[in-house]
């Protein structure tokens, strides 16, 4: 029997900030650090930096540094990271349905 790798996938997708980072990058293709900070209310610079590094280490996000003054750095979903799109779409659909289900259940109780 093969080993279950759901936990491996969830390590990349879980946490308060990673799904929000991925959502922004999937919707905007390429973003600078400060753009991400503005689009993700409540995230600290430290947390955003940490999660972007982790996503980069996992080859989910690509970091491109341009030789300019001041330095310009852009983040985008890597080619490999784009394979997550169907997974994230399915999770989003299920999350919406689950929220509706819980709301209906709470209304009837």
From TrEMBL:
Family annotation (InterPro entries): HTH_HxlR (IPR002577), WH-like_DNA-bd_sf (IPR036388), WH_DNA-bd_sf (IPR036390)
Gene3D superfamilies: Winged helix-like DNA-binding domain superfamily/Winged helix DNA-binding domain
Keywords: DNA-binding, Transcription, Transcription regulation
Gene Ontology terms, MF aspect: DNA binding
Pfam families linked to this entry: HxlR
PROSITE patterns membership: HTH_HXLR
Taxonomy, superkingdom: Bacteria
SUPFAM superfamilies assigned to the protein according to its UniProt record, in alphabetical order: Winged helix' DNA-binding domain
Domain HTH hxlR-type: 4-103
UniProt protein name: Winged helix-turn-helix transcriptional regulator
Source organism (scientific name): Alkalihalophilus sp. As8PL
């Amino acid at each position: 029997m093969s080993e279950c790798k759901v936990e491996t996938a969830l390590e990349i997708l879980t946490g308060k900030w990673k799904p929000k980072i991925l959502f922004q990058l999937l919707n905007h293709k390429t973003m600078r650090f400060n753009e991400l900070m503005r689009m993700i209310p409540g995230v600290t610079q430290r947390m955003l930096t940490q999660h972007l590094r982790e996503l980069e280490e996992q080859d989910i996000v690509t970091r491109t540094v341009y030789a300019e003054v001041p330095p310009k750095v852009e983040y985008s979903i890597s080619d490999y990271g784009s394979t997550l799109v169907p997974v994230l779409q399915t999770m989003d659909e299920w999350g919406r349905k689950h929220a509706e289900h819980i709301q209906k259940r709470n209304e009837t109780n």
